[in-house]
Amino acid sequence: MGALGSGSSLLSRDSAESLAAPAAKGLPLWAAVLLGLGAVGCWLALYVNLSRMARWLTYTLLGLPPATHFSSAVEFLIFEVPKVMLLLTAVVFVVGIVRSYFTPERTRRILAGTSESVGLVLAAFLGVVTPFCSCSAVPLFLGFVTAGVPLGVTFSFLISAPMVNEVALVLLFGLFGWKVAAIYMTTGLVIAMASGWTIGRLGMEDQLEPWVRKVRSGGNGEPVVVLGWPRRLRFGFEALRDIVGKVWLYVVAGIAVGAAIHGWVPTNFMASFMGRNVWWGVPAVVLIGIPMYSNAAGIIPIVQALLEKGAALGTVLAFMMSVISISTPEIIILRKVLRPRLIAVFVGVVTAGILLVGFLFNALL
Amino acid sequence: MENAPRKRIEILGPGCARCKETYRVVQNVVAKEQLPFDVEKVESMERMAELGLMATPGVAVDGKIAVSGRIPKADEIRAILAKS
Questions:
Q1: What are the mean pLDDT values of chain A's consecutive 10-residue runs (365 residues total)?
Q2: In chain B, what residues touch A102 (CB-CB under 8 Å)?
Q3: Residues A285 and A319 sit within 8 Å (Cβ to Cβ)
Q4: Which helix (H) or strand (E) holds B65?
């Protein structure tokens, strides 16, 4: 993977900037490549040796007695925090660069030129890589609809963009392994496509606010500029500073909570009301999660704690998805362009999808 | 020299923290260099759609989008304004 510079920029904000600056000012190519390879090398060396380093730090340097609860909690913490942070920096950096290729304008052009069935699938995938923030939901929605992107395809994008989140993906991968991460990504994409398809079938174009239908999109948005590699790298570093700077605290806190409650809360504490045999667990958490708003990084520590204490994977997955996909603020913003019936259908279809995922995984796993 | 018609810079966004930061960056550049521009916050969705803006915060100079979906750097704004 091309995780250039992620290892070294983990150290501090300043080193990310000092690395970004020479790249932007036209460092000679060989030097940039060397720097990049060095960074990837450091990253790999760190990642591969983490578990050994954690053990050494815990038992040799700190001299903690082996096989006690406290020392295993310390080892867990020393191992998990750098591991997740390493994964996070690498993925955020790479996604930052990938996103420099997928501006909303470009995504719109791609989606406006395909048939609805292809568009539904494409939109869900593009939702993952196109930069998106729920505060931009309305301009984006208008941009798509006025360019002739079908309503269902637009919703497929609008659902997948927040739901399939790269930070959540990395954290799930780091903490629970690739299977949970893959399940999360696949079901998120499928819910987006299926919801978009359903909304498309219902023919709800008359459920847009009247002024939306009158909008004539005047411009084509940001002029298309061809970005060079220095610019793209800078996008990567900016994403790194933005996202990792914002979420590292949640990550550390989450893992610390995970390490701390390890022995003190009974393992089956959550099983009685979030276990797989509690049929009302899934609808209950979705009902709580839908109006809530939190970013993916904020919710993962909770996911960690719930799973640790015996909550079922399907229930936890449903909770997580309902929190990060739809929220009250987003609905209030969307109300400016959508009439209540379409909002209700949007919320209803996504909720149904999440419920299905929850029940399915509780039944299967 | 100050008599040239003043141009309009629109800072487009629903009023989130990132939009305010963008406004601050642009306002700073204009104030510091005493450029003949009026800086204005625009929260109207209609206006964003009209301009074709798809990601906020956005900056439009003279009705043309110059920045979309991110907080610009002061240098960038200086370069954009020098060109208009």
A1: 36 38 60 88 90 86 81 82 86 86 86 91 91 80 88 94 85 83 93 95 89 68 64 83 81 76 62 78 90 76 77 90 88 90 94 93 83
A2: none
A3: yes
A4: strand B64-68
Q: Which of residues 6-65 of B touch A (CB under 8 A)?
A: 12-14, 16, 18, 45-46, 48-56, 58, 64-65
* Cβ contacts of B42 within 8 Å, gap of 6 or more: B10, B11, B12, B13, B48
b/e burial code for range A59-74 (CB count within 10 A of at least 16 → b): eeeeebeeeeeebbbb
Taking CA atoms, B65 is separated from A133, A222, A224, A295, B6, in Å, by 19, 6, 11, 29, 17
Please report the pLDDT score of residue A7 as a whole number.
37
From chain B, pick out residues whose CB is under 8 angstroms from the CB of A138: 14, 45, 48
**ipTM entry:** 0.80
Judged by CB atoms closer than 8 Å, whether chains meet at B64 and A333 is answered as: no
pLDDT tens digits, residue range B17-48?
Answer: 888 999 999 999 999 988 889 999 998 888 88
Strand partners, B65: B60
pLDDT of residue A75: 82
Query: How crowded is residue A182: how many other Cβ atoms within 10 Å of its Cβ?
Result: 13
Its pTM stands at: 0.79
Residue A109 Cα, gap to closest chain B Cα (Å): 12
Three-state DSSP class for residue A101: coil
- Could you confirm whether B11 is annotated as catalytic? no
Please identify which of the residues B9, B11, B12, B19 carries the catalytic annotation: B19
Say which DSSP state A55 is in. H
Given B16, B17, B55, B74, the catalytic residue: B16
pLDDT score recorded for residue B4: 62
Q: B54 vs A143: CB contact, 8 Å cut-off? A: yes
B1/chain A closest Cα distance in angstroms: 31
In this structure, which long-range contacts are made by residues A10-16, counting pairs with CB atoms below 8 Å and at least 24 apart in sequence? A10/A85, A10/A86, A10/A89, A13/A241, A13/A245, A16/A237, A16/A240, A16/A241
- Provide the pLDDT for residue A223: 55
pLDDT for the residue numbered A157: 94
B16 counts as catalytic: yes
Q: What is the pLDDT of residue A266?
A: 63
Pull the structure tokens for residue B1: 């020299």
**Angle, CA A79 vertex, CA A78 and CA A81 arms, to 5°:** 75
